[in-house]
């Protein structure tokens, strides 16, 4: 049972949101130094992630989110092992938030890629309300847990199933996101799609790695709209991926399109390499829905304004990397899982 009332949780988490929306000296230092630990965590990427988290933690959304669950139901505090991903900044924070909100104790196995940011945010939280200090621990090895939430690759998920299969668990594998275009998109919508593709260098499960487009779609319109994202090629690791994949396609005489910072390749697969965007054609929306249905367990979200009837989350252009509190990874309600242990 949570030691906090819902009102206290809303007040504390919304205050945290306000503080994350206002950069302080310590965060500035992390932003400026983080690339020494992880070259993908550029100042712009970290600022984007911190601001998105601050935006998510607003009083109205917190109220609507927390009131959906019976947080007084659980009689005892459970120890929840969390294996956090580190592909983009603060990607594991939502899992920590859910454990804290349900009154359980988070045993946090942070990713070496993203250990400093998550500690900074939790220090902020405990400065607002010191009672949260007793609700989380950072650990090198998960032991003595009652349940586990683990995020990793398709390979690591097999190990997670082996080690944690005997306790209640949520185990997440690789997922990617796709866009469904109709040809009626405005230039502004296509520019926003650039954010869905390029934010965090395309490393997130909510990044678009594939487009479904109608026959006779004019790809020149897409290329023109995303031209402002050209500076991404100046990042050395992104550039290395672009050069490598381009050389593979040239050596193998693989048909592809190239605008100097993104490679477009017609391919039925969903998961494209970094700096590559796959696309394939659909006949009509029913056909597109069937293609999505066939891959739904590998899709995190779908960017489109087409009237699609799909079970995966639909988001507007430019919104894939701005999930709300109820936009659960893999469509599994983490709060419901924790509240019913």
Kindly describe this structure.
This protein is an alpha/beta fold. The protein folds into two domains: 169 residues, Aldehyde Dehydrogenase, Chain A, domain 1; 140 residues, 3-Layer(aba) Sandwich (Aldehyde Dehydrogenase, Chain A, domain 2). It is 39% helix and 16% strand. It is built from twelve helices and twelve strands. The strands form two sheets. It has a seven-stranded mixed beta sheet, with helices on both faces. It has a five-stranded parallel beta sheet with strand order 3-2-1-4-5, with helices on both faces. Helix 1 runs antiparallel to helix 3 and helix 1 packs antiparallel against helix 4. The protein is globular. The termini are close together. 38% of the residues are buried. The model has no long low-confidence stretch (mean pLDDT 94).
Short characterization:
With 341 residues, the protein is α/β, with parallel strands linked by helices. The protein has twelve helices and twelve strands. The protein has helices at residues 6-20, 25-33, 43-56, 59-66, 93-101, 115-128, 154-164, 187-198, 219-225, 236-251, 285-295, 334-339; strands at residues 79-83, 105-109, 136-138, 147-151, 169-172, 176-180, 208-214, 257-258, 263-266, 276-282, 299-303, 313-315.
């Amino acid at each position: 049972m949570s030691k906090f009332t819902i009102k206290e949780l809303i007040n504390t988490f919304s205050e945290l949101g306000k503080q994350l929306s206002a950069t302080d000296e310590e965060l500035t230092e992390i932003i400026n130094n983080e690339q020494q630990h992880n070259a993908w965590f550029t100042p712009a990427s970290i600022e984007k992630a911190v601001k998105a988290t601050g935006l998510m933690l607003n009083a109205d959304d917190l109220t609507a989110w927390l009131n959906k669950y019976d947080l007084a139901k659980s009689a005892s505090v459970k120890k929840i092992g969390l294996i956090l991903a580190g592909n983009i900044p603060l990607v594991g924070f939502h899992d920590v938030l859910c454990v804290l909100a349900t009154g359980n104790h988070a045993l946090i196995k942070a990713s070496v890629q993203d250990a400093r940011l998550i500690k900074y945010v939790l220090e902020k939280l405990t400065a607002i309300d010191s009672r949260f200090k007793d609700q989380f621990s950072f650990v090198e090895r998960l032991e003595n847990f009652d349940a586990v939430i683990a995020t990793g690759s398709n390979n690591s998920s097999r190990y997670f199933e082996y080690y944690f299969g005997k306790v209640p668990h949520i185990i997440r594998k690789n997922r990617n996101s796709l866009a469904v275009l109709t040809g009626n998109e405005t230039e502004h919508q296509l520019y926003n799609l650039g954010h869905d593709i390029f934010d965090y260098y395309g490393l997130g499960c909510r990044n678009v790695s594939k487009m479904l487009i109608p026959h006779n779609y004019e790809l020149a319109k897409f290329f023109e709209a995303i031209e402002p994202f050209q500076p991404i090629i100046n990042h050395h690791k992104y550039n290395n991926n672009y050069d490598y994949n381009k050389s593979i396609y040239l050596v193998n005489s693989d048909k592809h399109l190239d605008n100097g910072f993104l490679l477009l390749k017609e391919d039925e697969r969903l998961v494209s390499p970094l700096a590559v965007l796959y696309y394939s054609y659909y006949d009509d929306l029913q056909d597109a829905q069937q293609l999505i249905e066939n891959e739904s367990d590998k899709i995190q979200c779908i960017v489109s304004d087409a009237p699609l009837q799909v079970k995966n989350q639909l988001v507007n252009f430019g919104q894939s990397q701005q999930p709300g509190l109820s936009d659960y990874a893999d469509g599994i309600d983490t709060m419901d899982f924790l509240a019913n242990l």
